[in-house]
Amino acid sequence: MFRYLVLGLLRSGGALHGYALMKAYRERTGVQISTGNFYRELQRLAVEGLVRTAVNPEGADPRRAPYEITDAGIMAFDGWLARSTHAAIGQYDDELSVRALFIGEGGAVLVREVLDHWQEELWLRSKMLERLRESLLMQAGPAGPVRFAALPVLLARRLKHMAADLEFLEEYRVAYEQWAAPTLAHGRARTSGASRGASRTVRQRPQRPKPKGAH
User: Fold this and answer.
1) Higher confidence at residue 35 or residue 32?
2) Which one, 7, 39, 117, 136, has the greatest CB density within 10 A?
3) Which spans in 91-150 are helix H?
């Protein structure tokens, strides 16, 4: 998907180098990706003939070669954009899901600590996104920007996903506690029973007779 992101930015933004691509993506999405990722992808796309180096404007840093999209790149991007979204929608096997498969095996203390950390982190991130979205909406003038700004809508989508993840973590916590309560109680009962049995064994152990002549 990253290649189409780069092609899309070049298609709408003209010739850009890796650093400019990073800035353009950050401005349009609020997310920052390493500049090195853009340069590496540009090199791969150039090998495939989807982008090519462009003339560097006068006075620009010669170390930053700009790239422009080719006709083949435009065809590849437009084809991807119009492709069926079956593979892109409804996929929820993300890293959070994978981790959730295994944290239950780490014991009650670990599970609670991890869930507390995840919930706190998600809550803080959601508050930051809420403030950013409100700021963007306030900055929009009455006439609106020249280019449609998708960022406020994308931020609203991320906030919905975070709210769903927070709800999922709470459901996970409830399910785990419901499972753990009888399991831990049974374990404590077994430990307590074993301790009482050991005490009875000590009390009932017969004393050895004292040797003759001992006082």
Assistant:
1) 35
2) 7
3) 95-102, 108-139
Looking at residue 105, its pLDDT comes to 74
Give me the residue spans of the domains in the chain. Answer: 2-82, 95-198
Burial class (CB in 10 A: 0-12, 13-18, 19+), 90: exposed
2-82, which class in CATH? mainly alpha
Would you say 66 and 53 are in contact if contact means Cβ atoms under 8 Å apart?
Answer: yes
Tell me the pLDDT tens digit for each residue of 136-179.
Answer: 888 766 656 567 778 889 999 999 999 999 999 999 999 999 98
Question: Is the predicted pLDDT of residue 57 greater than 80, yes or no?
Answer: no
How would you classify residue 33: left for phi > 0, otherwise alpha for psi between -120 and 50, otherwise beta? beta
Output Rg (C-alpha) for the chain, integer angstroms: 31
- Name beta bridge partners: 53: 67
